[in-house]
């Protein structure tokens, strides 16, 4: 009987902070069957432009994992040859010529020792790429056109395949991006917001120094002149006004507002 992981079970395995190890990877192959939008199996390494397109599509679809060394039709663990696996640093450099810098991904090599306990995985090597979920930067577009990739196209994962996003899917990406940015801002606590406001106030002077002798200003004689760009309300007055508003809000909740 074939067991299928739920989405949550799959995420619990592949999102572990230590990534997959030889134990969790074995469990994944034993209990999970078939590809999905967040998981793609490749029997062998693929060309850089094809990999870049797959990474773009996954990044626009919430992230995912690409496993090399597994057949995509039967999920057979065939493994890779050492010579087939490119140095991760060199591979990333090539990919960065196509995919944007904000798109975050990581890679990992898993090697199984020669031991009967690992059964069909014994002595085999696998290469894994993790594509992170970065909703605040979606949709991701290619830096430049290349084979099979256009710069004005948004690629996504749909039904475990790479497709061009339709209008509805693009709208959903924009909504996710807005929510992600707003969430980052709203996660600041009160003290952080106030500290940022203080910093803004310190970067503008209440007064400007102007010389009454414009033609001979090298004398170093200056007058203090009010800076017209300075906020009409001081930081302290602003805080005082916020306190009064907060007090009224509390009184509304308590139904004691006069």
Please summarize what this structure is.
This is Schlafen AlbA-2 domain-containing protein. The protein has 258 residues and is of the alpha+beta class.
Draw up the topology in text.
Layout: H1 7-14, H2 22-31, E1 39-42, H3 48-59, E2 64-68, H4 88-96, E3 105-111, E4 125-131, E5 155-158, E6 161-164, H5 167-186, H6 190-202, E7 207-210, E8 223-226, H7 235-253
Parallel strand pairs: 1-2
Antiparallel strand pairs: 2-4, 3-4, 5-6, 7-8
Structure write-up:
With 258 residues, the chain is α+β, with helices and mostly antiparallel strands. The chain has two domains: 7-186, 2-Layer Sandwich (Methyltransferase, Cobalt-precorrin-4 Transmethylase, Domain 2); 190-253, no CATH class. 35% of the residues lie in helices and 15% in strands. The chain contains seven helices and eight strands, in the order H-H-E-H-E-H-E-E-E-E-H-H-E-E-H. A four-stranded mixed beta sheet has the order 1-2-4-3. A two-stranded antiparallel ribbon has the order 5-6. The longest helix has 20 residues, at 167-186. The chain is elongated. It starts with 6 loop residues before the first helix and ends in a 5-residue tail after the last helix. Mean pLDDT is 79; it is low at 1-16.
User: What is the mean pLDDT?
Assistant: 79
- Stretches with pLDDT under 50, minimum 5 residues: 1-16
Total beta strands: 8
| CATH-defined fold name of the largest domain | Methyltransferase, Cobalt-precorrin-4 Transmethylase, Domain 2
Strand order of the largest sheet: 1-2-4-3
């Amino acid at each position: 009987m074939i067991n299928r992981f739920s989405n949550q079970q799959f995420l619990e395995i592949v999102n572990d902070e230590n990534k997959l190890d030889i134990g969790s990877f074995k469990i994944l192959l034993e209990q999970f069957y078939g590809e999905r939008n967040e998981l793609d199996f490749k029997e062998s390494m693929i060309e850089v432009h094809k990999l870049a397109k797959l990474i773009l599509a996954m990044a626009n679809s919430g992230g995912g994992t690409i496993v090399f060394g597994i057949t995509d039709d039967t999920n057979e663990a065939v493994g890779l040859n050492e010579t087939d696996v490119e140095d991760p640093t060199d591979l990333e450099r090539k990919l960065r010529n196509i995919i944007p810098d904000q798109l975050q991904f990581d890679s990992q090599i898993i090697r199984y020792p020669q031991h009967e306990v690992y059964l069909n995985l014994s002595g085999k090597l696998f290469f894994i790429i993790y594509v992170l979920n970065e909703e605040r930067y979606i949709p991701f577009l290619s830096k430049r056109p290349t084979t099979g990739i256009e710069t004005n196209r948004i690629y996504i994962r749909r039904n475990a395949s790479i497709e061009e996003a339709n209008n509805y899917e693009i709208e959903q990406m924009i909504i996710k991006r807005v929510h992600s940015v707003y969430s980052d801002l709203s996660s600041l606590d009160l003290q952080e917001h106030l500290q940022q406001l203080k910093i803004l106030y310190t970067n503008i002077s209440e007064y400007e120094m102007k010389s009454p002798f414009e033609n001979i200003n090298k004398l170093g004689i200056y007058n203090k002149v009010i800076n017209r760009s300075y906020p009409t309300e001081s930081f302290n007055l602003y805080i005082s006004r916020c306190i009064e508003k907060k007090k009224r809000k509390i009184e509304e909740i308590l139904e004691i507002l006069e």
